[in-house]
User: Which sequence fits this backbone?
């Protein structure tokens, strides 16, 4: 993993000291809330319904055991014993007191963590494919590029006052695990005809009130030109993006107003001006950063573990967990373990202090001290020996972290909604809980296969409802909660924006509606067909009919 | 009728302006104002910057029951997340 150098450490320390002084001045009344609000937001501190909320960055989703233990320590000593993993690979604390926040930030700085780039109209914390350095199908490790982008973007003077927030995501495989087509800039690592590593650059995707799938403005960008090209895109946006209306200020609006070809031309013209100005890293510097992410000392192991196969033969639950929650590793004899934060009936993304410590202990002992956070609000242990999988499973089970539902109907993304969020119109979490309970049977869930339900409590779409196979958007109708269902969305390589199915449903109706859609899918599917593929094959109408048919 | 609510500056806790011009953590201790008075009182408390992060008016009906379009939001602010029976006003805040 990357280790802070003296520049990183100084930068973070200075920012904490600066914020401590600002908090003192706010508490004395010397700063008004109006003056203080932009300052606290620059440090990831929001005011929500019940309390402040602190959003901590986990750059490119990578955590060590020590960092996870620190998050547990903060949850226990400064908060109410838990944290919430978000769709941006951040962790949110829901109850910190303003008076404690400078101390919390000092504690985070001790383990090279902070809340910089988690709010405001800057380049936000870069998100990444969670299987970096581990997945069998990866083209190259995405984390060094994530780190390069972090170093380039943090406090970038030219891009600290953008028209609006700006989100960059990287995926390392054709199997998009970072939703790159619905980000301001999505980067897909791939190799060109001569085997050189580079990026497909996708711009102008996004969710919120105006959802768009992004456009590829460059099909191959050599890796060494990453930063100068990103800078060219940001320059075009910074200059021409609208500032008169915050709802029209994201890059997706600019790109679609100009048209993708014209936008690409503007970027290429800008790039031609700046590409030789020394923005790009020298080969030696790229190698230096890549060396931080050198593979851990993997053992030479047989592809299969005899021991594991014996254990799965006698423990059916372990067998299911292996099938559903583990993924092929690039190294023989190893596996990637997904840790579901979607217990049946639980709160998506929530994790207690004790569970954080359990994950940290397991990662330290069995996964080369590495943990990843995913944009689907789960965790990953990237490097587990197959022979250790049973003990890892049992230890996760002891911590109630063994739900075998990754990618299945109960692996629901949900925003905090009106239970916590000051922007929300409706609650999201109770809908997720009730759907999860309705489909509690894990055997049935596995039989249904990949089915992504995503729930947002308002049009800002933090719950990614537009790209749910089944999306649910909460809307307020004269003070009552209603839910609009969208169908056929995808945040993957086959990205699409879901279509609205019809009239809004009451909170009582919406869980039944999901059940009806799933029942119809089971009836209409051909063998081995995912919900999304059945929907795409037969179209929206039969699903809508099933959804709104009289009971 | 109106009540003035806000979030306490030091910890963000939900508070209501009480009859003795203090910030109370229970809605039952809140002072009620009619529409005309509410705005001028709000103006006067909004400048008490060292006490609260923000303050605004909410609607209450007979007996101080939360009412109007924001009733659900304000009910959740009053009692805490509906998905955690152990958190919010059901237990006291750390001071």
Assistant:
């Amino acid at each position: 993993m990357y280790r802070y150098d003296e520049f990183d450490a100084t930068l973070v320390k200075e920012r904490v000291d600066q914020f401590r002084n600002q908090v003192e001045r706010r508490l004395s009344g010397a700063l008004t809330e109006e003056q203080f609000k932009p300052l606290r937001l620059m440090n990831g501190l929001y005011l929500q319904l019940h309390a402040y909320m602190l959003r901590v960055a986990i750059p490119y989703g990578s955590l060590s055991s020590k960092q996870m233990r620190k998050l547990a320590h903060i949850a226990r000593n400064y908060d109410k014993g838990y944290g919430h993993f978000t769709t941006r690979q951040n962790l949110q604390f829901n109850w910190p007191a303003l008076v404690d926040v400078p101390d919390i930030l000092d504690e985070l700085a001790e383990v090279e963590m902070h809340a910089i780039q988690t709010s405001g109209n800057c380049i936000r914390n870069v998100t990444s494919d969670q299987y970096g350095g581990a997945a069998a199908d990866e083209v190259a490790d995405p984390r060094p590029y994530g780190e390069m982008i972090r170093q380039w973007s943090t406090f970038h003077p030219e891009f600290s006052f953008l028209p609006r927030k700006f989100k960059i995501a990287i995926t390392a495989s054709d199997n998009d695990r970072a939703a790159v087509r619905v980000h301001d800039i999505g980067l897909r690592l791939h190799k060109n005809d001569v085997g050189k590593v580079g990026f497909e650059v996708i711009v102008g995707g996004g969710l919120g009130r105006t959802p768009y799938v992004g456009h590829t403005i460059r099909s191959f960008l050599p890796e060494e030109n990453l930063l100068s090209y990103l800078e060219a895109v940001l320059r075009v946006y910074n200059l021409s993006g609208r500032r008169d209306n915050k709802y029209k200020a994201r890059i997706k609006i600019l790109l679609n107003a100009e048209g993708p070809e014209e936008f690409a031309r503007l970027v290429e013209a800008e790039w031609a001006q700046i590409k030789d100005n020394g923005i790009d890293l020298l080969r030696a510097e790229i190698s230096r950063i890549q060396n931080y992410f050198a593979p851990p000392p993997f053992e030479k192991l047989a592809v299969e573990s005899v021991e594991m196969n014996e254990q799965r033969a006698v423990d059916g639950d372990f067998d299911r967990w292996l099938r559903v929650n583990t993924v092929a590793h690039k190294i023989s004899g190893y596996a990637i373990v997904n840790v579901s934060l979607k217990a049946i009936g639980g709160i998506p993304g929530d994790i207690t202090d004790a569970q954080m410590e359990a994950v940290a202990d397991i990662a330290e002992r069995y996964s080369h001290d590495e943990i990843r956070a995913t944009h689907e609000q789960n965790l990953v242990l990237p490097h587990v020996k197959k022979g250790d999988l049973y003990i890892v499973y049992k230890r996760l089970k002891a911590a109630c972290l063994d739900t075998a539902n990754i990618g299945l109907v109960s692996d629901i993304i949900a925003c905090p909604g009106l239970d916590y969020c000051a922007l929300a119109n409706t609650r999201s979490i109770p809908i997720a809980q009730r759907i999860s309970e309705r489909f509690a049977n894990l055997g049935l869930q596995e039989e249904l296969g990949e089915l992504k339900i995503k729930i947002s409590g308002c049009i800002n779409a933090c719950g990614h409802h537009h790209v749910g196979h089944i999306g649910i958007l909460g809307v307020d109708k004269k003070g009552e909660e209603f839910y609009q269902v969208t169908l056929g969305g995808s945040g993957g390589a086959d990205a699409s924006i879901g279509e609205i199915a019809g009239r809004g449903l009451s909170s009582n109706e919406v869980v039944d509606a999901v059940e009806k859609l799933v029942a119809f899918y089971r009836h209409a599917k051909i063998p081995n067909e995912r919900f999304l593929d059945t929907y795409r094959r037969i179209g929206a109408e039969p699903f809508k009919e099933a959804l709104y048919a009289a009971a | 009728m109106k009540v003035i609510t806000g979030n306490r500056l030091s910890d963000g806790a939900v508070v209501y302006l009480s009859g003795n011009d203090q910030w109370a953590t229970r809605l039952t201790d809140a002072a009620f104002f009619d529409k005309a008075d509410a705005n001028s009182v709000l103006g006067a408390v909004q400048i008490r910057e060292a006490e609260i992060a923000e303050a605004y008016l909410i609607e209450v009906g007979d007996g101080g029951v939360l009412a109007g379009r924001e009733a659900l939001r304000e009910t959740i602010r009053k009692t805490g997340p509906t998905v955690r029976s152990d958190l919010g006003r059901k237990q006291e805040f750390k001071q």
